[in-house]
Amino acid sequence: MRGNYGAFVLILIGALALAHNLGYLDINLAQLMRTWWPLILIALGIGFFFTPDTSSKNKK
Predict the structure, then answer these.
(1) The pLDDT of residue 25
(2) CA torsion angle 22 24 29 31 (round to 10)
(3) What is the pTM of this model?
(4) What tens digit of pLDDT does each residue of 9-43 get?
(5) C-alpha 26: how far from chain center
(6) Which of 24, 43, 48, 55 is least surrounded, with the fewest CB atoms within 10 Å of its CB?
(7) Separation CA 23–CA 27 (nearest Å)
(8) Residue 50 region, left (φ>0) first, then alpha (ψ -120 to 50), else beta?
(9) Furthest CA-CA distance within the chain
(10) Is-contact 5 55, C-beta < 8 A?
(11) Torsion from C-alpha of 15, 13, 50, 48, nearest 10 degrees
């Protein structure tokens, strides 16, 4: 589950960059990232919070 959030973020950022490069989006990606980068940290934190702890399974 932990890897899924990171993969989702990378896919989303890549899709936005590709759409911008192809001319589909007329936005300033640098300004967008400067404004919304904390949202990535929040999403990763939520993902880590809901990820089950696998270390307790290995201690048995």
Answers:
(1) 82
(2) 150
(3) 0.49
(4) 778 888 888 888 898 888 787 887 888 888 878 87
(5) 22
(6) 55
(7) 10
(8) alpha
(9) 55
(10) no
(11) 150
